[in-house]
Amino acid sequence: KEIVGSVKEQLAKLFEESLRAAFPDVEGVQPMIAICNDPRHGDYQCNNAMSLWNKIKGQGTQFRGPQPVGKAIIDNLPASEMIERCSTAGPGFINVVLKKQWIAKSIERMLIDGIETWAPKLPVERTVVDFSSPNIAKEMHVGHLRSTIIGDTLARMLEFSNVEVLRRNHVGDWGTQFGMLIEYLFDKIPNWEAASAQAIGDLQAFYKASKQRFDNDPDFKERAQKAVVSLQGGEEKYRKAWTQICEISREEFQRVYERLGVHLEEKGESFYNPYIPKALDLLNNKGLIQESEGARVIFIEGKKIPLIVVKRDGGFNYASTDLTALWYRLNEEKADWMIYVTDVGQREHFEMVFAAAKLAGWLPQNENDFPKASHVGFGLVLGDDGKRFRTRSTEVVKLVDLLDEAKSRCKLALEERGKATEWTAEELEQTAEAVGYGAVKYADLKNNRLTNYTFNFDQMLSDKGNTAVYLLYAHARICSIIRKSGRDIEELKKVGGIVLAHPDERALGLHLLQFAEIVEEACINLLPNLLCEYLYKLSEDFTKFYTNCQVVGSAEETSRLMLCEATAVVMRKCFHLLGITPVYKI
Ligand code: ARG
Question: Mind listing the UniProt keywords for this protein, alphabetically (predicted)?
Answer without folding.
Answer: Ligase
